[in-house]
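User: Before I run my own analysis I want an independent prediction to cross-check against. Here's the chain; please return only the structure tokens and, at the end, one sentence I can use as a sanity check.
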Amino acid sequence: MEIISQARSFNGTQRVYRHNSKTLNCSMNFGIYLPDNLKIRQFNTY
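Assistant: Structure tokens:
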């Protein structure tokens, strides 16, 4: 997974990531908004 872009917006950060989909056999993008006051927790990935 890689970060394609990120920008500051509304007291947070908008990030766009690219990942490879095994199911669809192509690369896909998704966006996520992370507010500045977010408490980050670690999660297991499968």
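Sanity check: The mean pLDDT is 87.
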